[in-house]
């Protein structure tokens, strides 16, 4: 399978040029909604700290990938404009302004609300001067024994060139001078990343309190030990972000694994795209950093207070249940519940399809059990599975290795190019190969992003195929945090389609059309647009019509234009999008029949569901409505036909669109307004689903 040629616009007529929101600014709006959760006083304090950490990590990745891509286009002279008509330079300028605004807001939430609030409950992040003398003495000993030996102060002078600064590392810019006077001299000290960033201060941790000292504060307080005989003039914290977007030159004749390993080694040397500095940094130190690291002034972000608040994950780890959401234990799906021993997944699926909704339905007692039982069942002949992201301790991978060692035919398509999981996937690929699994590294020019598993089982004189197709990765850790749906089925047509798909992924088969699936890069956009056009025909004929689309992102212009045309024809359209959204709802004459909502909360909304009311079709799967998913990835949507499963998914969509559901609504001006806004009864979509699934488990 090779990527298709550039697709033609489908029926774009009489649509205004300014019909899209900017993708990158829309992403920043998404991160602003994450920040709003941290600012929400109704959230438990440690949950608010968690959202501050998520915001920080999100922004890091945004700069490493999205901003890096824009800078690369700007530097190479590419003048390709975004869908909303902006050049790379114009986008970078707007991103810089909006990012600084959000960083200030982020720091303010930490310094003025969350840090003081936590302190009132005995959870403190302090400065060196705040510590009592016994604590200072104990931490000085800790510094001498654990930190000092790994520090390497690097001078900058004619004999010592400016050192390489690794991406996302925390550093101290130190200025020193001899006691006799003379010129100031500069040195850099890297804050080690193999020592906890926040150091627990308490000698006795049984009190229930928790006090943390940032590691850079400890180092700064002991600089005289690093620069013996010198006077310390200044010390400032800074952090660089580098381009981390891999560009693997894929060649049919080269081992993809080796090519990727080579690029991973280069990633750490990517050009800088952002310099974060404390707001107390002096101008002359900043000018030195800009000059030596080849950073432009508009790439500087001033951060009040602590840099890199992703360290708040450490604070979140404090055992203070009253400052967190109540614990939630996923329920075993009623179809798999058994009071004595786990029921055979295969026997269950012979009775009918099962829809699992994570994290409300347990991943370990459904999808994971499916693979584990397949690995242990002597009647199973083969297992074929795609792996995009998995966890460091993966029972799914262990089961595949057990199956191979037991003599089953096992094929694992490990996507080596899963961004920021490349090293982990290389490790798993080698472990799987060593166990005898047939490992395929994806397709040249495409990422394999679909979530599919196929089990072939001997049952008497016939062969039976069992399948799982989902919206989320085969990762038991994220399955407890991400909201996803999946179907487990023994439907012969789906089994035949997955067999054909795996032949495409592992061999030279070239297939574009399937019985029950839409498969990108050929069939998803085309299939979605065709079905939207069918809804237009239903509306014009006076029949029932409607489109409901739940996704992480909605960016693809052809899908958006089809939705605009449907709106103009009177088709009601409801979009539930977690992150980026380029469609403009509520514009008279264009999109007054389009509503867009965003739901963020305890779990990361990750499922992709598309519902066509007039055609009475419902599809679930892996693709978002983005160019990369529809043109440069292998993605799968499966049609859900069982009326009971369709009703379950309809109830999920109904809940997201309930007027009382807490959410953000997108306006035609591009604002995300909190809703409901009138103070009426408010319901939490995720809390309601937790209650529903817990009640179902108790009924079993």
TrEMBL record:
Required cofactor names: Mg(2+)
Active site: 449 (phosphohistidine intermediate)
InterPro entries: PP_kinase, PP_kinase_C_1, PP_kinase_middle, PP_kinase_middle_dom_sf, PPK_C_dom2, PPK_N_dom, PPK_N_dom_sf
GO molecular function: polyphosphate kinase activity
CDD domains referenced in this protein's UniProt entry, alphabetically: PLDc_PaPPK1_C1_like, PLDc_PaPPK1_C2_like
Keyword match Zinc: no
E.C. designation(s): 2.7.4.1
Keywords in alphabetical order: ATP-binding, Kinase, Magnesium, Metal-binding, Nucleotide-binding, Phosphoprotein, Transferase
Metal-binding found in the keyword field: yes
Domain Polyphosphate kinase C-terminal: 344-510, 517-678
PTM (free text): An intermediate of this reaction is the autophosphorylated ppk in which a phosphate is covalently linked to a histidine residue through a N-P bond.
Domain Polyphosphate kinase N-terminal residues, every copy: 20-126
Binding site for ATP: 58, 482, 578, 606
Function according to Swiss-Prot or TrEMBL: Catalyzes the reversible transfer of the terminal phosphate of ATP to form a long-chain polyphosphate (polyP).
Family membership noted in the UniProt record: Belongs to the polyphosphate kinase 1 (PPK1) family.
PANTHER family membership: POLYPHOSPHATE KINASE (PTHR30218:SF0)
Designated name of the protein: Polyphosphate kinase
Species, as recorded: Kutzneria chonburiensis
